[in-house]
Amino acid sequence: MKEITSKFDKVLNASAEYGNVNHEPDSSKEQQRNTPKKSMPFSDQIGNYQRNKGIPPKSYKDSKIYIVGSGIAGMSAAYYFIRDGHVPAENITFLEQLHVEGGSLDGAGNATDGYVIRGGREMDMTYENLWDMFQDIPALEMPAPYSVLDEYRLINDNDSNYSKARLIHKLGEIKDFSKFGLGKMDQLAIIRLLLKNKEDLDDLTIEDYFSESFLSSNFWTFWRTMFAFENWHSLLELKLYMHRFLHAIDGLNDLSSLVFPKYNQYTPL
Predict the structure, then answer these.
(1) Biased-composition ranges for Basic and acidic residues (predicted)?
(2) Which of these, 22, 58, 208, 252, has the minimum number of CB atoms within 10 Å of its CB?
(3) Stretch 139-150: mean pLDDT, rounded?
(4) Which residue has the higher pLDDT, 20 or 225?
(5) Does pLDDT of 48 surpass 80?
(6) Is residue 147 included in any domain, yes or no?
(7) What are phi and psi of 168, to 5 degrees?
(8) Is residue 76 part of a domain?
(9) For residue 218, is it within any domain?
(10) Residue numbers of the domain that contains 84
(11) Is 115 noted as a catalytic residue in this protein?
(12) Separation CA 148–CA 224 (nearest Å)
């Protein structure tokens, strides 16, 4: 192996041997070539190839699993223990201090009077982990063999989400929300933010970086109301959100980039 002189050399000189089986591809270490000992495709070429049913190296039918918290993360862990680890569901115990499961997705109410919930979840077509689980979970209302994913598709394909009054001002008048209202300098500032190193943004707020014209634009109103940002929040957090959800800009102004369940988010999630 040659001397490492840069971050790129470190990636290119990573070990060509991953081991016998690699269930978690690491794009920072892999080389673009196949070997007899590299069983997984490159991390950006996984797709449905990962939908196989793996064989555990040993039996876990007698294992006892204790999960702290019954929020989305804890429930997801239990799901994968059952599906991929073949752990019997009765062997999994949640340790939860609240009287209701769901974590921050807890909810109370009913379909007639409505629900109260601490926070909503905005979902789109790119939530690969969520849809991976939902395609194996039986549907709430549809008969077998339909899944929760099928119910999502049924409602959103036939009654797609969009807002007719995304912005309201002057005591109830619908404001024109067809444009983002970003000037050239504001657009350039977004591009520069996406290119900045994370380490350079540790102590900066959003209002430290962006101009007043950006903060008063329709775009910023769309973004901060969708993702619960305030002007004094972390610029780094905003950057990370933009990297993750930049594809949603196409439907940001009318919320058409999102998908929703039939009734509420608490029941299906």
Answers:
(1) 23-32
(2) 58
(3) 93
(4) 225
(5) no
(6) no
(7) -130, 135
(8) yes
(9) yes
(10) 1-21+46-103
(11) no
(12) 30
The helix (run of H) or strand (run of E) holding residue 73 is helix 72-83
The per-residue pLDDT for range 77-133, each reduced to its tens digit, is 999 999 888 899 999 999 999 887 878 776 677 778 877 777 667 888 888 888 989
How does residue 161 score in pLDDT terms, banded at 50, 70 and 90?
confident
Domain-embedded: residue 131: no
Which residues does residue 108 pair with via DSSP β-bridges, in sequence order? Answer: 116
Closest-CA residue to 104 (of 75, 139, 135, 143): 75
* pTM score, whole prediction: 0.73
Verify that 99 and 6 share a domain, yes or no.
yes
Q: What is the pLDDT of residue 32?
A: 55
Which of 56, 136, 72, 104 is CA-nearest to residue 228?
A: 104
Same domain, 6 and 94: yes
Q: If residue 169 lies in a helix (H) or strand (E), which one and from where to where?
A: strand 168-169
Instruction: Say what the pLDDT of residue 51 is.
Output: 73
Decide if 241 is catalytic.
yes
Residue whose token pair is 């610029």: 235
Point out the catalytic residue in the list 101, 122, 207, 237. Answer: 122
What is the rounded distance in angstroms from the CA atom of residue 160 to the CA atom of residue 258?
9
Sign of the Cα torsion 91, 97, 102, 104 reads negative
